[in-house]
Amino acid sequence: MIAMWRYFLIGLTLSTLTSSQADESLDTRENADLTLKCRFTEHYDANDFTFYWARWTANPAQFDNVAIHDVSLNSGYKPDYRPERGIYDLQIKNASYNRDNGRFECRIKAKGTGADVHQEFYNLTVLTPPHPPVISPGNVAIATEDVKMELTCSSIGGSPDPTITWYREGTNTPLQAIVRTGGSKDQPTNATLTLQPRREDDGAKYKCVVRNRAMNDGQRLEATATLNVNCK
């Protein structure tokens, strides 16, 4: 019976998954416990309505129902099912990036029509810090006078994707760079800086700064490249 409901509810939810937006974003950390609240004021009788929680993760792409009424479909989740009091919360135990970093949906549907009568959405970010940055082509970059070159700063991982900002040593003004986000904690985020060095840029230092909100206030990761400009 549970398996039949699983496939039925997945079909109903996928039809609206792409058009709905999460109305609340939450951060948590690895191994933490937390509760996602789903509250309502109307009375919904279990004989006439279906209650469920669903989870969508992007890496890897996966959609699952994790609770139906008071039944948990995954040992990491426990529904707090008290519809007579307007409560259908989801308790998450020992949060992990691989299992929980994604979107959670609480839905109450009318039986028969499948119409949503109540829904709440959460974007849950399981915070992890990024790795120290690496600069390509290296910490000493060989350049030619008046010839364009690129410096790429890469940081693997981090949840959420880290920000990477380039600076020239001696100034606090950020430099314009092209950023490509990794999208998961196992992929690099890159920021590419394009330069056209002049003779007087020989020995100039460029620094990239990496951080995300998993890190402590004021904490950041840095890497520096020094230009070695060959004159024409």
TrEMBL record:
Pfam families, A to Z: Ig_3
InterPro entries noted in UniProt: Cell_adhesion_signaling (IPR051275), Ig-like_dom (IPR007110), Ig-like_dom_sf (IPR036179), Ig-like_fold (IPR013783), Ig_sub (IPR003599), Ig_sub2 (IPR003598)
Domain Ig-like: 15-125, 132-226
Organism for this UniProt entry: Ceratitis capitata
One of the GO BP terms on file: cell-cell adhesion
Name used for this protein in its record: Irregular chiasm C-roughest protein
GO cellular component terms listed in the entry, alphabetical order: cell-cell junction; plasma membrane
An example Gene Ontology molecular-function term: cell adhesion molecule binding
Keywords: Disulfide bond, Glycoprotein, Immunoglobulin domain, Membrane, Signal
Lipid bilayer topology: Single-pass type I membrane protein
Compartments, as annotated in UniProt: Membrane
Chief subcellular location: membrane
